[in-house]
Amino acid sequence: MRHYTKDNFKVRESVGFQLVKARNLIVTEMDAALKELDISGQQMGIMLMLRQKLASTPFELSKMLGIDTGLMTRMLDKLETRGLLVRSRDQEDRRVVNLSLTKDGIAVADQIPEIAPDVLNARLKDFTKAELTELRRLLRKFLGE
């Protein structure tokens, strides 16, 4: 089914525009809430992925978070400079760089679940449980998951 045509396409009503606007809203609010931890929302994603063992290399993080490798490298540089993570060469394949959180990185990552839910809950305060379930279902469908 074709939902958009050149005749009915209005940028502000397009799903793409609305998703970007929603993402930017959450990023801005999350960045403000994480300010006390001195990390950004994007850095939060990296730290949680590492803490929850969902990724361990820059490539895996880039793929999971949808961040290009150049930006990923810059963000990892910042986190490493701050002493929140370390890079090490894989023992079996020296081309692979493994990432791990430092003790300080773990401490910061462990504080994120005390902050991030408040940001999301504030944005979702007018949603019923059923609406949130449906939103998640629709987003998974949109993403092809």
UniProtKB/TrEMBL annotation:
Domain of life: Bacteria
GO molecular function, one term: DNA binding
Entry keyword annotation includes Transcription: yes
UniProt domain HTH marR-type: residue ranges: 12-144
Keyword Nucleotide-binding: no
Record-linked Pfam families: MarR
Keywords for this protein: DNA-binding, Transcription, Transcription regulation
PANTHER family the UniProt entry points to: TRANSCRIPTIONAL REGULATOR, MARR, TRANSCRIPTIONAL REPRESSOR OF EMRAB OPERON
Protein name: DNA-binding transcriptional regulator, MarR family
Natural source organism: Paraburkholderia diazotrophica
Species classification: Bacteria, Pseudomonadati, Pseudomonadota, Betaproteobacteria, Burkholderiales
